[in-house]
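Final report, Chapter 2: Outcomes

The project's central promise was a pipeline that accepts a single protein chain and returns its three-dimensional structure in a standardized token representation, suitable for archiving and comparison. That pipeline is now operational. To close this chapter, we reproduce one record exactly as it appears in the project archive, with the input sequence first and the structure output second.
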Amino acid sequence: MALTTSLAGRVRNTSLPKSHALLPLLEAIVNSIQAIDAQNGNSDYRGRISVSVHRNAQPEFDLGQGGLGRSLLEPIVGFSVEDDGVGFTSQNMKSFETLDSDYKASLGCRGVGRLLWLKAFDKISVQSTYTDEEGRLTGRNFNFSVEGEVEHEVDSASRTQTGTAVSLRGFKRSFQQHAPKGIEAIAREVLEHCIWYFLRPGGAPIVTISDEDESILLSDLMDEFVASEMSTTTIEVKGHKFDMLSLRLRTSTRNSVPRLHWCAASRVVVEENLSGKLPGLHGKLNGQESGEFVYACYLTSAFLDNHVRSDRTAFDISDHIAGELLVDEPSLDDIRDHVLQEVARILEHPLKDSREQSKQRIHDFVSNRAPRYRPVLAKIEARGITVEPSVKDSDLEVQLHRHLQKIEAEALTQGQQIFAETGSEPSEDYSLRLKEYLDTVSEMNQSDMAAYVARRRTVLDLLSRLIRADKEGKYSREDAIHSLIVPMRTESNEVSSEGSNLWIIDERLAFHDYLASDKTLKSMPITNSDSAKEPDIVATRLTGSPVLAAEGLKLPLPSIVVVEIKRPMRKDATEEKNPIQQCLDYVKRIRAGGVLTATGRLIPPTHEPPAFCYIIADLTDKMIERCEVSNLRPTHDGLGYFGFNDAAKAYIEVISFDGLVNGATERNRAFFDKLGLPT
């Protein structure tokens, strides 16, 4: 019983990823190249291929906010490909009408190209002129679609020479949206897909891509694309030979990373980014005499030809074969490893220079911008880190941090293994492993300390910027500065001590049992006050030993701290808005009793704990007047005032923003100098 095949079913079951939206066009161009190759068997005949882009006749307009009325690039609705090859001979036509034909199997053809046409386009029309068996020019015209399959029209020799014109019409929207839009992008994709034909002996036909009045000659693009050939080498993987064609590509936005092109049937099937897969192999390399270039490798093999999938978008080859058992065929990992070994040999000198530049880039960044990695830099380098010398600071930071995390994870595992041996007979290398572990822990601790100090430097830099006037002479609101010193509207249960920067004001303020920020007094769990006034920061703390830092309680409270922050250069410190008096009022309310700990335990009323009031405000005329009325004395540098209020049992300090930054910087200078950070 004869089997029948459904064209609609075959098209439905044919895979065409959206990322390969131009693959049907590329297949048509390859068909034209092969038709020209077959023309009279003349190896000197170059031939011509003309590719035209057809767009929607109705222009679209950008009605978005940024470009009202601006004409956009019209959507692509189809393509046409014309060549002067042998045309649709009887053998070619028979093969076209036979699904899974092996007529051109020796050329790597799988008979899938025309199925891809129907996958992405509604209708295809073909006009061809060929020489029949009697040597006469004969025409062949037909339409091709899922519904009508092959529909022949009247045969007519419409041209005076052999050749074929294929029209791909009705570009389906799902593929149209993912296809390149501009003619240059289309031309580059055609070139990269068919580049083997341009590099082979004898070269490729003359291929022109046209889009209305604009056209690109692929041979010109080839000259812009490829700087020079490097070598053609052969490697062997488990008995299978692979040819590697290495190229120096000219550097450009498109040619910015090294690539490995996996090819089959003289076409590029998979493009792989090689960045970072060899130490020093990233973007541009320096060829000394030849200048800068980007490396590209085109890999071909009969093995790849035999294992390419029918849609030519991937290979039926295992990514990795666990173990080496009795498997003769190489995996993709096997092939890639051998390719990279050969690439390392081919690029030995450029890679050496790149690694030196990479090392210098990392060292400069760590020395000047990220000192936390200095204690563990030797371990990071031992892991083989290399970066492109032009890498952004943010990207370099991410890479260094990723290595640091891996070192920490490995140290944790190593420590667990070592401590698991406690009490048992130690292994011969126990002492050595213990020393290595302790050395790593020491380096990690140094790294953490360096990160902590560097963070302080960054915070002070940010504060310095916030207190400056902008181009319009305006200053930051107090909430911006407030948020830097301590997160707004938070309690100590909501933010850890590391989340605030109270050390800017006083190193001891980092240790507190309770912290409330921009909350009304009655909303604080430490007070039952009904006042709706909002002190900026209220804290109770004990120097060196927080009272309520854990489950235990230690009463009475040793001290109370209130901090008030004003906007830079604010000039409304009148008697009614006196920030000094506001702080003293806050202290009085807290001392009045009804205070609860953060865990809800009652603290009896007491007037004994001393109070510390910090007012962060610029010393305007009004602010100086308030300080003098409160009997405060100027500091030796003139950037603040201080004094003690006997009645309130409160130490008061008014600090200008410049004094705040200067004081914090001076207290941390020794640490900044140790890490080489600017002060």
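Archive annotation: Residues 430-466 form the longest helix (37 residues).
This record, like all others produced under the grant, will remain available to the consortium after the project formally closes.
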